[in-house]
TrEMBL record:
Gene (UniProt): Cpne8
Organismal lineage: Eukaryota, Metazoa, Chordata, Craniata, Vertebrata
Domain of life the protein comes from: Eukaryota
PROSITE patterns, per the entry: C2, VWFA
Pfam families hit by this protein: C2, Copine
GO cellular component: plasma membrane
Keywords, ordered alphabetically: Calcium, Metal-binding, Repeat
Start and end residues of each C2 domain: 1-101, 110-233
Gene Ontology terms describing biological process: cellular response to calcium ion
InterPro entries noted in UniProt: C2_dom, C2_domain_sf, C2B_Copine, Copine, Copine_C, VWF_A, vWFA_dom_sf
GO molecular function: calcium-dependent phospholipid binding; metal ion binding
Protein name: CPNE8 protein
Similarity comment: Belongs to the copine family.
Amino acid sequence: RNLLDRDTFSKSDPICVLYTQAIGNKEWREFGRTEVIDNTLNPDFVRKFIMDYFFEERENLRFDFYDVDSKSPNLSKHDFLGQMFCTLGEIVGSQGSRLEKSIVGIPGKKCGTVIVTAEELGCCRDSVLMQFCANKLDKKDFFGKSDPFLVFHRSNEDGSFTICHKTEVVKNTLNPVWQAFKISVRALCNGDYDRTIKVEVYDWDRDGSHDFIGEFTTSYRELSRGQSQFNVYDVINPKKKGKKKKYINSGTVTLLSFLIETEVSFLDYIKGGTQINFTVAIDFTASNGNPSQPTSLHYMNPYQLNAYGMALRAVGEIIQDYDSDKMFPALGFGARLPPDGRVSHEFALNGNPQNPYCHGIDGVMEAYYRSLKSVQLYGPTNFAPVINHVARYAASVKDGSQYFVLLIITDGVISDMAQTKESIVNASKLPMSIIIVGVGPAEFDAMEELDGDVVRISSRGRFAERDIVQFVPFRDYIDRSGNHVLSMARLAKDVLAEIPEQFLSYMRVRGIKPSPAPPPYTPPIHVLQTQI
């Protein structure tokens, strides 16, 4: 909207060029170009860009605008109209996945605005629930009847087949009815409705040498017709067919039901306006070492971030795209506070217990450095108070409009294990997830236990309703070559990768559907004024 006019006799002929940025060397690479729209300062570009989206990665984007003056593909031959920078998360995390931002880059000029919308491609999100039965299959066992099961394969581009599903075995029958099963359309046919699906019928044998009864082929499109005469298949054994003139089939397989279910995705909720609230809790216990010493994990090095700062930035910069007000509560635990030296396990880093919110990740960093100068590192290391702090907020909004992520950064040895487990089990019923980053050289065995990936966490005989804790040791991500950008991108990726699934598991268990997205943007219609 309102692009600069660079043509003398007519309006500009704009094109938009999209660049993406490599994580390591920060180099911008051209991703694609829109079409050129002639003679307008308010172009609605049609060409779309299809990109991979990962919640846990930060994808920097740059949109450059040019006024095209000739047929040359070389951009330096055209007039630059300005540019806009954002992240893919910013677009997706905006209300209705629609971001409007000013175009910048030409000093002293207003360059207009750009409106970017994102939509998730839907073809990959369906799953199907199918049920099959068979009739008069060949008898393969000497003593009883057969023990049949089905094996499904999808075909690949090169004509080979990949196994994608096996049914259970139905014992001792030539007329089995298999249980209904659910499979994603992507796994079944790679989203291509006409691609061949091969189904083999076997007779199960205990020793693993299952006997081949026969096979048939179909496709998603055929199956989607549901139960009908089209979905009764002859099971053919090519060897028998070659030998016997009168061979008809080795039985038939019939489709009993076919139901399509569209899986709702994390982005459906974000698009519908669900906000992700990010809270940080930092370990101020004495085991971190004196902040004025270079050996301390809290050392304030004027030239580079310490481990706490790095972990905070890595995770925070990605999550902040999904939080519209960018106000983050920042807490500390395990310190003695001024003026009276009382020990606190839940204090506001900005010194204001009524309003612990800091503006943006920069605000959190500032409050963290200020606290280091004013509080005394002490102990013990108690997690339960900060977990309960966030849980109190999460308990008040269970309608799916908000989800809470608590990042705890700690040097390790936890003092209130029993209380923390109790807090986590209680929190697993709430819309929240906990990320723990362990810094320093300590043994983090207790943290692995909280993570619950191997054994679901329990307290006093009650198990957590879902897995909500993700733990990583910071030291696994330190880049020996000193390239912190890449190592922090890897850290963020690993701790955030589980959040969308944890988020969805809460919504599913509670039966919360995404809110409808706000109506899509329609360009204003230019009314022509006529003089009468």
